[in-house]
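Handoff note, outgoing to incoming analyst
You'll be picking up this chain. Sequence as last confirmed:
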Amino acid sequence: MVRFEIHNEKTGEIVRVKGLVDDGAMVSVMDRNLWDRVSHRLPPYAQSERRLRMANGAMIMSMGRWTGTFRFGDVQVTNAFEIFPSQGAWSFLIGKPMLEALRATHDYANDIIRVEDTQRTSVLHNQFENVIRRRQRTDNGIRRQSKKH
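Most recent structure output, in case you need it:
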């Protein structure tokens, strides 16, 4: 999971998002629930005729397509995402087209992703892994049990 920003070019507002990197996904997708929470801060989406095939083979119609500016670390890119209900499976999937636009390189051994534009390079760290490490430091490796009354 990585953090990134979606920029509203008209108002200057920035929406901070966490997304899952899925280099097998052929589109980037925002869950409808997340869209409902942030849509008042972004320009409206355009209609989309795209049908999205799920891992189980089901076909779901996209609600719409949003195109705009994204920032990953110091790297900025214009790209798009589809909007549809994931039923709580995730809030944002960063798919292959976005990763290609970012010229992303995934270093699996170190669990980082390098992204670049014509002037800058940024390293994105797996935020999920950071949560696990924080918990390990806090708990010192000991699982605490609550007392039953």
